[in-house]
Predict the 3D structure of the following.
Amino acid sequence: MLGRHGSESLSNPLDVSQTQRERLAFLELRAFFTGELRRGDIEARFGVKPAAASRDLSSYRDIAPDNLDYDAPARCYRPSASFKPVFDFSTERVLAWLLQGFGDGLDLKLRQVAPCEGPGQLVKPDLEVLATITRALVAKKAVRVNYLSLSSGSKRRELVPVALADNGLRWHIRAFDRERGRFGDFVLTRIAKAQEIEGEVAESERIGADAQWARIVDFEIVPHPGIQWPKAVEADYGMSDGVLKIKSRAALAGYVLRRWNIDSSPDHLLDAATHHLWLKNTQTLYGVESAALAPGYASDGAGQA
């Protein structure tokens, strides 16, 4: 994460102490992927005093004098048009930071920079595209993207990103699609180009208007009735009284059920040899749009653009 990004014009960021290197990496990460950086961000993350945070900003600007512009009205720094990362960030670490915060596993109780949920395996979207998307998300802006869809091929779309999510296989963005007039899921790796659109977005395009994201679904998951020794499955998942109770956003519910291969048919009709779990309260999926992805509930393949 802290390796050198190829650029002859930049000083070596490794010519500082390890602790300052971490702060400079955070500084750049925050600016690059949220589009804004304040001295207080450094103070809150590392527990340093204002003078130390100011020194870090000064050191970074010495290393990369053309990377940051100061936005006086907003009282923050923003990545310049000529911004080029000094640190060689890995996609996995960036996505982990967006999901859990910058802290190498430490729970510092810091607020997420962007709504972002879900455990799972990662793919590797383009970091320039990801940075454009996350900056727009934080700033509540729309983006114009070239998106490759399974149903319509390559097409230009105007999206308002509202959250990031990992569906267990790949990362996607939850966004309002202006052409379709509704919220949907868009796979990050299918976005070839992304450009922020100036102007404010309507309240109806923001995360507060996304009913599927706001709705919380309660699952009651039990061993599949076709399992001969259900106690083994109960042990696998730490069930209490034979039931595993979890919650999910409605927008992600289908992904959760598919990822864990949970039979979601009302009469547990799927093969117990490949579906060790059954969703006991299938009625909870009523009105859940992503339920089309759940094994046994409907045919797979729906739910993503």
Summary: The longest strand covers residues 153-166. The mean pLDDT is 86.
